[in-house]
Amino acid sequence: MLTPFRMKAIMGFVGLCLSIAAAGLPASATADTSATTCQSEVAPVGDVDGSFSAPKQLPHSDADPPESPATLGDKPEEDSKVQPSNERLRGSKPADFNRDIYYKNKLEFSLEGAWLPINIPFPLDVFEGDPYNLYPLRYTLVPILASLRWHMGDVGGPWILRGNWDLTLSGSFTAIPKGPETRYLAYIMGIRRNFVRRNWRIVPFSDLRLGLGNIDGKGSKVQYAQGQDFTFTAQMGSGVRYNFNPRYSISAGLNYMHISNAGLSGKAHNYGINVYGPMVGIDIQLRRHQRHSEQ
Questions:
Q1: What is the DSSP string of 164-214?
Q2: Domains of the chain (ranges plus CATH)?
Q3: End-to-end CA distance of the chain
Q4: Each residue of 240-277: pLDDT tens digit?
Q5: 222-226: long-range contacts (C-beta < 8 A, 24 or more apart)?
Q6: 0.90 cut: is pTM over it?
């Protein structure tokens, strides 16, 4: 038989074992639960069997910033695509603004004035058999010309001759501050060639005008003066024109003027007047409507 002491000892041992067993069960369950949780978290990253593998790199999203043009330009294959367009841009010529100034059927009003103090022999004396020399009588002429200019065509022509023609109809009054006569009235027609370079505001020109007029001739009263009132005139000039815009421009150059009666007077001989000097002018467009063909 078991003594009470032994029974208490056995019961105490059994209770200790039960308490140890009760304390061990939660710890094991908790460990199993933690292990399950860890495996569930690692499964997407690792293999299903628990072996570990490196996480896969996520693709770039649409929010990633695109490469800048500067970065694209650093790539040789993309440079080859960009260069032709740049070369085309560099090779294209800017529009010629002179096509808005010199065009067919443009009308202008021109006012010109000259100071012609330099006397020379008549340039055609050598062809007429006359001596090429000056007469003792000297003249100074101051012509004032009011003109209508009609541009007969658009800008065209080869390289150095590129330009257009304008027809000039002029009425002139010429004061004679030096010479036996005092005034000269004339009607003159002429033609001018404008040498128009692309996008140049300064345009060279050359012109020729012919006409007829009336001078207060002195007959035989003054030697080497003009023998009759009715005379012919010729003017030649060359200079440059500066265009502020399609409406306004100024010009400056040299002008030669000849006056004589072409030997028509039987009573008194006209020795003629041959002078040249500087001339300036202003041109104003008369209508703004532009009618010109593109070339």
A1: EEEEEEEEEEEEEEESS--EEEEEEEEEEEEE--TT-SEEEEEEEEEEEEE
A2: 97-285 (2.40.160.20)
A3: 137
A4: 999 999 999 999 999 999 999 877 766 666 678 999 99
A5: 222/137, 222/180, 223/136, 223/137, 224/135, 224/136, 224/137, 224/271, 225/137, 225/179, 225/180, 225/181, 225/271, 226/181, 226/259, 226/260, 226/261, 226/270, 226/271, 226/272, 226/273
A6: no
